[in-house]
Amino acid sequence: PALEKTSIALHRIAYLLYTFRDSISSKDILIISPNKVFSDYISNVLPELGEETVPETSMETNTLRSVGTQI
User: Fold this and answer.
1) Is the dihedral of CA 58, 64, 70, 71 positive or negative?
2) Which residues contact 59 (CB under 8 A, 6 or more apart)?
3) Is 70 helix (H, G, I), strand (E, B) or coil?
4) C-beta pairs of 1-7 under 8 Å, 24+ apart in sequence
5) Residue 67, SS3 per DSSP
C-alpha cells in the first residue's frame, strides 16, 4: 500500500512536469522521503518515467542539516 501511494505520487509528478513543462521543471520540486532506502527507490522511478532527476532528501538528512550532527 505505501509503495502504491508513492507510485501514484511519482506518476503525478511526472504528469505535472510534462503537462506544465513550460512553467515548471524538476529543479522546482523537492521530494522528502522518510529514509535512505525509500529515497533510493524514488531516485530510480522518475527517470524511468522519462523525467530528469528530481531533487530529493530524507527526513534524517533534513533533520541533521537543521540541528547538526549531534543528536
Assistant:
1) negative
2) 32, 33, 34, 35
3) coil
4) 3/41, 6/38, 6/41, 6/42, 6/45, 7/45
5) helix
**Strand positions, DSSP E, the chain:** 31-33, 56-58
DSSP state of 28: G
User: pLDDT digit of tens for each residue in the chain (71 aa)?
Assistant: 566 888 888 889 889 989 999 999 888 888 888 887 888 887 777 778 777 778 888 888 888 888 875 55
- The grid coordinates of residue 59 equal 527526513
pTM, full prediction: 0.67
3-class state of residue 56 by DSSP: strand
Does residue 7 sit in helix, strand or coil? helix
Predicted pLDDT of residue 30: 84
